[in-house]
Write a structure and sequence with these properties.
The protein has 2 domains: about 130 residues, no CATH class; about 100 residues, no CATH class. Helices cover about 30% and strands about 30% of the residues. The chain contains 8 helices and 12 strands. The longest helix has 19 residues.
Length: about 240
C-alpha cells in the first residue's frame, strides 16, 4: 500500500545523499513502489564517494513527520560489523540471518538481526516489538502463537481462508513482516527484487555492478552493449504493441 505520491518525493534530501532527481525518477517500478510505500530500497550506489573514494552505497526511504512534511533518509553500507558484544552462538545465528533476543550491557532486552543490505546489525526493544505484534493479533482472525514469534521463528496461519506468514524483520518499520502465502513466499519476498540486468528509464539506466549492487548510468555514458540492449527492448515493446 502506497503511503506517498510521487509529488511528495523529497528530491532535495536525496540530492544531498548523492541521488539526483533523475536517479530517483528512473528507479525500477518495483523499487519505486517500495519507496512510495515507506519501505527501504535495496542497496543503491550513489554519485558520492566514501572515505576510500569508492561510490557510497546506501538504502533510502521516506517518512512523514507529525507536521505532514515528508523527509528522505538513508542508511549507508557498513564495511565493518562489530559482534564483540555477542556470544559465539549468537554471532552464528546473526550470520545465518536469524534473530537474537538478548540484553546487552546498558541496553534493554532487545531483538537483534543483521541487515543484509547495509551489513549493519539492527535492533528493536523487545517490549516495542511485542506491542506491535499484539496489535497485529487484534486485527487478524487467526491464532498466532506469541511464543513462536518471540523466538524469532517464522509461522504460517490461516486467516479468512487465506494462508499468511509472519516473521520478525527488523528492516521493516513495524519490526515484522506479513505476507500472503507460506514460509517460502515470506523468504522470497525478503530477497532483493528480481530485476533484469538493465533497467532503462527516461534519463539513464539502473544496472548491477560487479558487486551485484544497483548502480546508475546516465544515457550519455551507455556502453555499446547497453545501447544494443535498449534497442532490443524498444523493438520487443513495439512487437507487443502490434499484438495488443
Amino acid at each position: 500500500m502506497k503511503k506517498f505520491t510521487e509529488n511528495e518525493i523529497p528530491y532535495e534530501d536525496f540530492e544531498r545523499m548523492g541521488f539526483s532527481q533523475e536517479m530517483i525518477d528512473d528507479l525500477p517500478e518495483t523499487i519505486m513502489n517500495r519507496l512510495l510505500s515507506g519501505e527501504k530500497t535495496p542497496l543503491l550506489s550513489s554519485s558520492k564517494n566514501d572515505s576510500k573514494d569508492n561510490p557510497m552505497k546506501a538504502t533510502i526511504w521516506m517518512s512523514r513527520e507529525e507536521n505532514g512534511v515528508v523527509t528522505g533518509f538513508y542508511r549507508p553500507y557498513d564495511n565493518v560489523r562489530d559482534y564483540s558484544d555477542f556470544s559465539k552462538s549468537q554471532q552464528k545465528t546473526l550470520l545465518s540471518g536469524g534473530v537474537v533476543l538478548t540484553e546487552l550491557k546498558g541496553q534493554p532486552s532487545s531483538y537483534y538481526q543483521m541487515d543484509e543490505d547495509t551489513n549493519r546489525i539492527l535492533s528493536c526493544p523487545a517490549d516495542c516489538l511485542i506491542n506491535n505484534f499484539n496489535g497485529l493479533k487484534n486485527n487478524l482472525s487467526a491464532y498466532i502463537d506469541e511464543k513462536t514469534f518471540s523466538e524469532g521463528k517464522i509461522q504460517s496461519v490461516v486467516s479468512n481462508g487465506d494462508v499468511i506468514t509472519i516473521g520478525i524483520d527488523l528492516s521493516d518499520s513495524k519490526g515484522y513482516r506479513v505476507v500472503e502465502g507460506d514460509e517460502q513466499n515470506w523468504k522470497q519476498e525478503k530477497e532483493t527484487d528480481k530485476l533484469p540486468k538493465y533497467n532503462f528509464g527516461l534519463y539513464g539506466c539502473w544496472t548491477f555492478d560487479k558487486d551485484n549492487n544497483l548502480s546508475y548510468i546516465p544515457e550519455e555514458s551507455y556502453t555499446d552493449e547497453m545501447v544494443k540492449a535498449q534497442n532490443e527492448l524498444v523493438e520487443k515493446n513495439k512487437a507487443r504493441g502490434m499484438h495488443m
